[in-house]
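re: ur msg from earlier - yeah i can do the tryptophanyl-5'AMP complex, just paste it... oh wait u already did. ok heres what im feeding in:
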Amino acid sequence: MSQGKTVVSGIRPTGKLHLGNYLGAVQNFIQMQHSHNCYFFIADYHSLTTHPNPADLHQSVKQVLAEYLACGLDPEKSTLYIQSDLPQTAELYLLLNMHAYMGELERVSSFKEKARTQPNNINAGLLTYPVLMAADILIHAADLVPVGKDQEQHLEMARTFGNRFNRIYQTNLFPEPQAFNYGKELIKIPGLQGGGKMSKSDGENNVINLIDSPEEIRKKLSRAVTDSGPQVPNSEVSTGVQNLFDLMHLVSQSSTLEHFKQAYADCSIRYGDLKKQLAEDLIIYLSPIREKITAILEDDAYLSKIAQMGKDKAAESADKTITAARSAIGIQRFY
Ligand code: TYM
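and the outut:
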């Protein structure tokens, strides 16, 4: 049904990939690569809004590429590339910016959130972040974009910018990209610190990285936020504990989750046991990936070869789109 559709998605190189990135995005990438025309990239431009240290950024780009491969992305099946290797994306971003308005950009939730949390660094890149993301998606004329729930509004913006371009320049260059997940809905993986989603912005203890060692996973789980325990049978579950149940649902046997839910309902639960069990199940779940990441990261020649191959493949598709976009706008050589 969706056979042969074009798929685009990316991840910012902000360090190591975590379980939220894996379950919200990468797991879908791996499945989609078998039946779709896929482009998966490392969004290094997007990570510049927070002014990373250049050496860290350089290392993180390699890290994400190694992690993509370790998770099972096959460079023969999907095109894996680095965002800054495609100047066509930057050009499309410039063109789209001419029809992106202050008012709509200022209303984007992620912008408002960043403006609140980093009041000293509300830069123009942050404001136009959704335009760059639209350029990433539209440069390959994507139909589907596998992402977590937190990216839903950005996808809406990508559709707005694509449709607007089509309308103004009377073209049908850009299809309407849809956010995608193999499950019924886009997902949000919870973190360990009792808040909303798993994200590094709430500290390292909030996330389980794919490359975390068993000791790190046990330590993080031991610090996970819970509560003082149920006092009466069938009492309401607090967010922190519900988050642990949700993670257990994803990585443990269903009988294990049932056991702890029952223990919660009859007030016999010991959170220490819940955390230990979840830590062990996470360790088992992630160990095949962890071992592969370490091996791939050591192979610089292999990583370089993949990045070069991806760059060349991605450029073919991006060239077609940017040539058509330029010509629709009236930027054509007359000499
Ligand atoms: P980023 O780097 O924050 O996250 C990468 C992907 O991981 C998903 N994700 C989650 N999913 C579920 N639960 C979580 N706790 C969780 N945390 C992260 C994100 O939804 C995302 O799919 N702007 C994007 C990167 C980007 C992009 C694009 C994505 C740039 N251009 C074009 C798609 C298409 C971002 O910052 O994702």
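cool cool. The chain has two domains: 6-187+300-329, 200-294. ping me if u need the other ligands too
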